Every structure is written in C-alpha cells, then in structure tokens.
C-alpha cells in the first residue's frame, strides 16, 4: 500500500501579526514545519505551535529560512555555504530548545522559501545545509524538493531524506517549481490540485507547464496553511488520499 506524509508550514505568525488557522489544520496533517524566527515566527509562537503539534500527535520539524521578515524569506540573498550552514544550525537550535521543554524530539528539517529553492539548484549550498542537519543529528530527516540538489546532498551524507512535492504549485519540465514571479505559479483550482497530488503519489509523475511528463518521487506533500480555504483543503486532500488507498503517515524509512 502506498504511503505519503502531509506536511504544512506553521508557526509563521509573529508579534501582533497572525497567519493561518493552526489549531484546525493540525487535525489533517502528519508533519509540521515550524518557523524559527528568521523569515517568520517568534519565541512565543514557536512554543505554542510546538504545544499544539504535540497535542495533535503531529511530527515536528524545523523550518529555517533567510533572515528576511519583510520579504517572508522568499527573496533570494547572496549567502556563502558557511552562512547557510550557520543560519540552519542556529534555527534548529532555537526550535530544539522548545522541544526539550516538552520532552519531544525533532523529526525533520525543511528549509523555507528562497533558501529552499536556492539549495534545490546550488550543490554547495545544499551540501552545507545537509551538513548542518547531520551535525545536529544524523537521525533527522531532511526535506527537499523531489530530485533536487538538496535531497541528493542529504542522501550522499547519510541522512534520511524526504522527496517533497507541492499540492498547489505548478512545475517546469526540469522538475523545478514555477517561479512565484510568474502568474501560473500557483494552482487555485482545488480539484486540479488534488488530482496532481494523487498522480504524483500513485504514478510518480507530474505534468509540467510545458505539457511534458516529469518523473517525480513523492515522500511528503506540502500544503500551505495560509490560504483562504486552507483548513477545508487540508481535510479534503487527507480524505481523498485515503479513498485512493494511500496511507497518510509521517513514518519515514
């Protein structure tokens, strides 16, 4: 029987700014990527998100991003591999501090936004991020874009990796995500989005914007928690995967 993880970016509120309905969406996902304060999040939000994830038996991961609150971590920055290593170690450490107060262990690390996309193509940055994760704990799972430099670097260093696919993003013929700067980057039709996910999990293929079939591996599916209908979409995709005999679980081999 096919298995797949459902992950969601969480803890992205900070100060008086509130984003997403965390309490509800945690009922339908199996892994939570918690912002660590650089692109979003703050100490109080991190603690509360950890608590909610534990209450809902959702596995917890660090979601380190570039130090860019105003740009929500989605603007590229010129950083060295060493800087990439350092900011990932720093942010994992911040979340680990809260996890230790609950007696909980971290499952995974998933870079955010521009850092994620940069590491998908930049082998040296990918290697630095993988090394940072490995140095914290070789038992952590590294989430990266399916078939990217990041998953390659994780596998090479000996980490368990989760090849990630996206429910609401379109793809290019090389397997990369369509840039958010383009009008066709996001899939807004719920049925089309879910059909894409089912195809990626069951057939290991995705149809690109160039109308070519791209081979893809789907260990974990990202759904975004800040959309207008995020909760109902999370529930729908969870149920649809079940009706297609796909077990939704965070268990990574």
Automatic annotation (TrEMBL):
Enzyme class, broadest EC rank: hydrolase
EC number: 3.5.2.9
Molecular function per GO: 5-oxoprolinase (ATP-hydrolyzing) activity; ATP binding
Catalytic activity: 5-oxo-L-proline + ATP + 2 H2O = L-glutamate + ADP + phosphate + H(+)
Matching InterPro entries: Glyco_hydro/deAcase_b/a-brl, LamB/YcsF/PxpA-like
GO terms, biological process: carbohydrate metabolic process
Pfam family, one: LamB_YcsF
Keyword Nucleotide-binding: yes
Keyword hit for ATP-binding: yes
UniProt feature coiled coil, ranges: none
Subunit structure: Forms a complex composed of PxpA, PxpB and PxpC.
Similarity section: Belongs to the LamB/PxpA family.
Protein role: Catalyzes the cleavage of 5-oxoproline to form L-glutamate coupled to the hydrolysis of ATP to ADP and inorganic phosphate.
Entry protein name: 5-oxoprolinase subunit A
